[in-house]
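Dear V.,

Thank you for sending over the compound details. I've combined the ligand you provided, zinc ion, with the protein sequence from our construct and run the structure prediction for the complex. I'm sharing the raw inputs here so there's no ambiguity about protonation or stereochemistry in the SMILES, which I know was a concern on your side last time.
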Amino acid sequence: MPHKILKSAHYIELGSYQYWPVLVPRGIRLYTYEQIPLFLRENPYITDGYRAYLPSRLCIKSLFILSNETVNIWSHLLGFFLFFSLGLYDMTTVLPASGASREDYVIYSIGLFCFQVCMLCSVGYHLFSCHRSEKTSRRWVALDYTGISIGILGCYVPGVFYAFYCNNYWRQVYLITVLAMILAVFFAQIHPNYLTKQWRRLRSAIFCSVAAYGVIPTIHWVWLSGGFGAELIQAFIPRVLMVYLIAAAAFVFYISKVPERYFPGQLNYLGSSHQLWHVLVVLVFYCWHQSIVPAQTTCSSSKDCRASPLWDLRL
Ligand SMILES: [Zn+2]
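Below is the predicted structure of the protein with zinc ion bound, written out as structure tokens.
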């Protein structure tokens, strides 16, 4: 068990040759990759700046020190405040101005609530993964994965709701399939092997499939709305593609561990792949939300669905 050290200046490497002194509170010290317990060893290219062996109280206190998790924690803590503020703004300004129905309020709340839960689960994981108990640390890993599923659900619910606004049958089909898929992922997490390193590829494949499934309702929506030439599709498809592109980039950073793979030890505190993944996840949710706002306005302003190209095609 490592000994506690008094408040002292600890020199960290930030960039290639610069060493910055940081104040480390009593009881917290930073470790190298070789010094941390096995269950924390995920990324050998992040060589230093690890917190470890901490009780809950010091995990929380470590929110205010510079470690290799600081950017991960704060990026999603700020993300949480962003979606919380967006929620308040939507409920008090955007929705009343667009003559939104009660359903719109519910759908907006579900979407933004899911994003906030996703952000908080991630903050919790990055804050408490360094807990001295492996069991506690693993519980937070599981919660982080659950948060990602909930975040994906937060994209699907408003997306499907407004894409199939005038087609109740397909709206229900896609919402039920998505819910079933997310529930299946939750149950898969109960499997004792789910969080092991051996199942890492399988975990990634599951999340990719859940996100990629969205291509099916998207193509269906394009087809039902009159193809790529239709005005509605031309207005919204670039937004959908952009969100998918950012999500794909985020995932590539996440699994490839680029750029720190090429600069081992130099991106311990700033610029690592997981930090890029975090920022891009916030961007995906934000862009998606910004696409839902005009979709809801369009749907609310043309309340009569008989004018919609989707009306004739409904089952
Ligand atoms: Zn993370």
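A first observation: The radius of gyration is 22 Å.

Warm regards,
I. M.
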